[in-house]
Amino acid sequence: MLLTYIMVGLCLGSFSTAIAYRVVHKKSWIFDRPLDSDTPVPARSFCPECHHQLSILDLVPVFSWVFLGGKCRYCRTSIPARYPIIEACGAGAMVLFFYAGGKDILSLSIFVITLPFCLAFFQLLYLKSMPPFYMFGLFFSNILALLYTVV
After folding, report:
1. Which of 31, 36, 41, 62 gets the highest tally of CB atoms within 10 A of its CB?
2. 8 A C-beta contact, residue 121 and residue 90
3. Cα distance between residue 120 and residue 138, in whole Å
C-alpha cells in the first residue's frame, strides 16, 4: 500500500510542475488550442525548449530525469533539478499522509486532489510568480486534509 502512495505522490508531483509551468506562461493546464484549429485538445507535456511532445517514457517521475541525465531526450537541453525534487516532495507528502493515518476515502480524496496545487503553489512562489486565487484555497484545503488526518 505504501508503494502505491509513493507512486501516486510522484505522479502528482510531476503534474504539479506542469500546472506551475502553464500558470507562469498563462496557458491552460487543461486544454491547448492547436494553431490549425479552434477545437481544444487535452494539454500534453512538452519540452519548453524544442516544444517536442513528450512520450510516456519521458514522463516517468524522477527516473526519466535520472536516465536521461537531466536533459531533454530530443534537444539535449538541461532540465532543472527542481523537477525531480518536486516529484520526490509529492512522494514524501503522500508517505507523510500515509503514516499520519490517511486511509479514509474522504481525507485521501481531498488530499490527492489538492496536493498538485499545493506543490504548484510552492513552485510559483519559488519562481516569484503570484499563484492564482484558486490555488490559495486548494493549498489550504490540502493542509486541512492533512491536519484532519493527524487529529
Report:
1. 62
2. no
3. 10
